[in-house]
Amino acid sequence: MSTGTNSNFPKARTADLITERVGDELVVYDGKSSEAHCLSALASAVFVAADGKTSPADLAAIASRELKDAVDVPAVEQAIAELEDRGLVDGGISRRGFMQRSAMVGGAVVAGSLVTSVVTPAYGGTGSSGTFGAWSSLAVLFLYNGTYYGAHWNAATPPSGGPPDVWGATEANANCKLTIPSGVTVSSGSISGVTAATGTSSITITVPAGVSIVSVAAFFGQGGTGCHGCQHPAVSGSAPSYTLTFSC
User: Fold this and answer.
1) pLDDT tops 90 at residue 241
2) pLDDT, tens digit, 9 for 90 and up, residues 183-201
3) Predicted TM-score (pTM) of this structure
């Protein structure tokens, strides 16, 4: 493995970034650009391992071990190029340069983008009505027909009135977990028709008849004003509409 810092090797940026793991993907909130970047499993593996001392070939080996699948150098270079274009790593090659070089040598390009980005309100700040910008992540434990279901919303992806991005969740993030009754097993299944829509100080959860909310965990970033850290809001209402109210 390569050792020693090399200006041509990518180095992940750490300043003004907040990261959250969501399944196999990594969500990176950039405090400077007010963007949220969703990194695929490959881009996440490259970003985490990019220390300025590791070559693309070695990053490919690391990603292959982590993903338990063969990853070649061109795929790693594409991930580096997309991360560099978004200011998440220093060094490496720009996406334009990568595409030009791949075209010249006939290299393969991974289908689809490895990093997707959206502009969000200030991370952890107060979102406007109908946006999800004030909260970075939300988890809700539902009870339906005797079965417990955990749903997760990620601030980078759901629109107002959007469904969960992950089912089977037990936490908003690693530092903000749901309160789960003793002996309860959370199903990995889903409930059709569940959505979340947010305002400036509350979240409305819409559910089918017969669904109740057992617990809620919402995580706020440290920037801006209003709520910070892990919050467990008050829940009011009944199916088909619940309101989550924050006191912070």
Assistant:
1) yes
2) 999 999 999 999 988 776 6
3) 0.52
> What single-letter DSSP state applies at residue 63?
H
Using alpha carbons, select from 23, 70, 69, 16 the residue that is nearest to residue 44: 23
Q: Is the peptide bond before 163 cis (omega within 30 degrees of 0)?
A: no
Burial of 38 (0-12, 13-18, 19+ CB in 10 A): buried
Q: Give residues with Cβ within 8 angstroms of 192, minimum separation 6.
A: 208
* Beta-carbon contacts of residue 150 (< 8 Å; ≥ 6 apart): 139, 140, 141, 142, 167, 168, 169, 170, 178, 186, 187
Q: Report the distance separating Cα 132 and Cα 157, nearest Å.
A: 9
**Under 8 Å between Cβ of 47 and 25:** no
Beta bridge partners of 229: 220
3-state secondary structure of 206: strand
* 8 A C-beta contact, residue 154 and residue 165: yes
